[in-house]
Amino acid sequence: MALLQRAPLAQLLPITLFASLWIVHLLITLIWAVPTLPRQRRMATDEQQLTVIFNRFERLQTVRVVIDVLIFGSTLWALVSYIS
Fold this sequence. Notes:
mainly alpha, about 80% helix, single chain
């Protein structure tokens, strides 16, 4: 919407960054994190495989948390750019 309204770059940049990061977060969740549950259920009796699955999910979650923090920061940046 800000793009269509020709918002100044100081306002457009944090909004674009927020939207881009949100899409990346969503794609990581849908492509890599969501399929973990069926794999976990299939390997429920194999402790070594479960360890591999949980370690992989932990790495994905770490990436997602970093993206969440960046999204929060860009949201604050957008808010400050609108207020000032």
